[in-house]
Amino acid sequence: MNALARTLQALLFLAPEPVPPKDLADATGAWEDEVGEALRELGEALDGHGIALREVGGGWTLVSDPAAEDAARRLLARPRTPALTPAQAETLAIVAYLQPVSRPEVARIRGVASESAASALVERGLMEEAGRSQFGAVLYRTTPLFLKLFGLRSLDELPDPAQWDPSPDEQTALRDRLLRAGEERAGAPAAGGG
Amino acid sequence: MASPEVSRLDLDLDVFAGPFDLLLALILREELDLLEVDLAEIVLAYLDHLQARDELDLEAATEFLVLIAALLELKSRLMLPGEELEELDALAPAEAAEELLERMLAYARFRGAGGWLAARHEEQQASLFRKAPLPGELRRVPVDAAQAAYTPDVLGQALGGLLRTPPALDLRHLGPPRVSVADRLAVLRRLLARGTFGFEEAVRGADRQTVAVTVFALLELYKRGEAGWEQKEPFGEITVRAGDAPPAATEDDDGAATP
């Protein structure tokens, strides 16, 4: 491992947050492409060690090896954070893909009010308020912590959501079912109630 | 229901002439379009009405405020494009199904994405990050600026007068009472020995505590029959004269506690 790679390892060991390549270059006085090369070297050198090099949220950081998780959680007395509830996961997905997005918009897509899921996500630091829509509704966006905890380099790394769209067959089936239900309702005024 | 003063408020607007409560009824039954009613005119009419009456009935005024505020909110909702959803009932079945389908498709996409995020969250928890004591924005200070704070000059300036010992506080005024009834008894007896005297004379230049103790001493002398006094008017001069009994023999008998 060359001198720059060793220095970078020391810096990342000390840094409590992911460090952007530019900051690493500024601190070491090296060029950014040299830093990039040294980071590659460091990543390879750490292979098989108890820590690994990761790029998350636009910066570089050292993380503990997954094999050490149980021991690390016992040492730090830090249990896993609770899993996302389905409501939180859906709300977070809408915000992650459509941000900035207003709360009424989230509610419109989910079909139910999402206040408590949204405030829980804000509480967990995964998303934050990003101003107001033209109608005065709160807008949400994801936080750097979101990228860090989900191991994402940037929002571009989110997978294409079209993969979860229902297939054309499923869509047709759904449409037929809805149309039938609608016609039945229109054909039975008593049920409609006015 | 509306108080007579508000409900009978006579209005003469572009689109309506009559009492206020009729206007309300028409708006609520949607026989009159609220968008065409000039609410400012109603407020002006009410203000004119108040001026003519020349007195403010608080209950009626409150009620008017509540009603006009409700109308304003209703009207502003009608004027602004709402964020509320269109009622599906208002659409034809085919349109409704189409709309519902759109929503369900969009929802399916994000439900899937949510599932992916939840799984990713679980999976990523296997690797732990170093935890920082301070948020980043508080630590990002250039080394130069951080060093400057440690020069002795900066510290000295910051400490300033704190290094000097302040003068000790004078607590003498907090000491125990130094004037005793016995002392004042002695003073009064000395004055009585010379004859009649004014109370002012006995306490000239004394502090409040001495004046109060002197009053006690005088009462004590009166009780023992050694002295009497006259005061012609409230707050007037008190003239103290000798009583019938002879002065007590002992100087150190303060007598204050004995009945």
Polypeptide structure, described:
By secondary structure, chain A is an alpha+beta fold. Chain A has ten helices and five strands, in the order αααββααβααββααα. In chain A, the strands form two sheets. Chain A has a three-stranded antiparallel β-sheet. Chain A has a two-stranded antiparallel ribbon with strand order 1-2. In chain A, strand 4 (127-132) and strand 5 (138-142) form a beta hairpin. The N and C termini of chain A lie far apart (78 Å). Chain B has eleven helices and five strands; from the N terminus they run αββααααααααβααββ. Chain B folds into two domains: 4-124; 181-258, Structural maintenance of chromosome 1. Chain E (Arc Repressor Mutant, subunit A), CATH 1.10.10. By secondary structure, chain B is mostly helical. In chain B, 52% of the residues lie in helices and 7% in strands. Chains A and B meet through strand 2, helix 4, helix 5, helix 6 and helix 9 of A and helix 5 of B.
The topology string of helices and strands of chain A comes to HHHEEHHEHHEEHHH
End-to-end Cα distance of chain A, whole Å, is 78 Å
Largest interface: A-B, 61 and 43 residues
| Low-pLDDT runs of chain B | 250-259
Estimate percent helicity of chain A.
40-55%
Q: What is the helix tally of chain A?
A: 10
In short:
By secondary structure, chain A is α+β, with helices and mostly antiparallel strands.
